[in-house]
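Good morning,

Both structures are done.
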Amino acid sequence: MRGISFLAVAVFLSAIPPVDAGKKPKVIPSLEDAFRAWQKGLSSEQPKQREAAVRSMWMLTKKGVQILFPTRADRIWPHIEKMNEEFLRQVDDIAKEKTPYGAVVRVTAIDVRNKNFEQACPFIAANVPVVSYEVELEHGAWNGGPCVYVDGRWVWIIDLPDEVCAILRAK
């Protein structure tokens, strides 16, 4: 028999690692899509949808805190939990503040992970994407940050309580 034997092909193929067809590669959704969904939810007439919108981008989860601040999560979580409760009490105020400018037209994410950021914010886990953003709306614009991709979603890290900042600054 000429060429490559069946046995040689079988040995070669057995050395190739199996592919799990059920697993999709992790793709981070766009910040623009997250802002569009958030704005749509905040603009809803339904209180539950407005609350879901606030939860989606403003409220860190315990798992998110553990990913962001792995060495200090246990001390930080109780303060974040209180902050989240306050956000829930303010859902309608947040919606009124953020929705009068119309729909999201475009979002520009600006990667802020650089040497200066690493020195200023060494407490955020290195594997977490961190961006600032510019949001163009139908009748206005926002900019700000930081926004982090953690626990499967984009979340603002805004106005962290003073107690959290003190924990993060402590050596």
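Second structure follows.
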Amino acid sequence: MDKNEKDEELNPLEKQISELDEQQNILFNPGYFIGSGIIAPVIKNLHRSPIIILIIGIVIILGVIFTIIVTNFSLLMILGDIIPLVIGCAFTYGGIKRLSNKK
């Protein structure tokens, strides 16, 4: 019996548990997911909870805003805040979009 046949026999909960067991077994192997097409279960299941994505995005945006307000204004600071701001906006947009599609 190969892996695909085994996955078909498991119900969704058992499949998630087996994926988490596999994740724990290869936890300290940094190259396991690179180039294999396998996505870590934690990341793969993130799309099921858009509230968490939205909260992560808002926290990142608030962190960037707080950094801009508290620290001295400089071009280097703005350049360092662009990437987290874009990531935070992407997470927030994705969370809102998934929430609106879910309803």
